[in-house]
Amino acid sequence: MTPITALGPKLGALLSIQGVTDLLINGHGQVFVDRAGYGMEQVASPFESEAELGQLAQQIIALGGRHLDQANPFADVSIANLRIHAALASGCNPNTHVSIRVHLNRLFGLEQLADFGMLQTQQLLTLRQIIFDRQNFLISGSTGSGKTTLLRAMLSECIGERILALEDVSELALQSPNYISLQTRQANIEGKGEISLERLVREALRMRPDRLVVGEVRGAELIAMLQALNTGHRGAAATIHANSFADVMTRVKSIGKSAGVDAESIVEQMGSAFTWGIHVENRKVVTIAKLK
User: Taking every annotated instance into account, which residue ranges of this chain make up the domain Bacterial type II secretion system protein E (predicted)?
Assistant: First the structure.
């Protein structure tokens, strides 16, 4: 059984539309698909009721090993090349919402991304040098900009190295025998057993990584990672959501503030921990610069 057929015939039919990169369901009556080269378009919904959609959402999340209910109305899972987010009808919104991102099955290297126009020749050489010199780097960009694609391509250059990737939902999926993916875990129905990214950072450091990678930093895990990198760990990488390269440090300061770290301290730690910042927009690398 393929991942698409495992989701049932209705979702399977929607995901089988040629070129689909995103499937967005806004309640049982509204379905949108984003197709490469065509943009967002509304398609006919195959769902007959909110109850049907809600039940399907719960089944999909369970298939990915997590649970979705009124106590936990939001959940993310990764199933093969699909990243699925579900928001169950609740006090937050009367409708169930399902968002599915379709990742390419094929993993591209830096040279192939350059052929596709994501990188210029000099940028390709710079990124390879960053990897070769084991310099720590941070990739920034907005949602869907190509952060994960670029990170995966850069890590594919690390032949024979032990890479530990820490993610909320497993997406990198490197094809390497010494690649280890650790995924966060939500609390159970009793509110126990949660494993955060911050905890994973601390555990991963005991697993002798050659390279430590955090899929996306957005909370206290950044502080734990900075502490690790400032004790001499090299070759690390992470991504962060930011709309421009200039916004990166603003985002970092905001994360630091929420974790009780003042702006001056976290900026100083960032400059010491990460050598390079790489910003992507619309699946193109637009900035490669030293972080200060």
Answer: 95-260
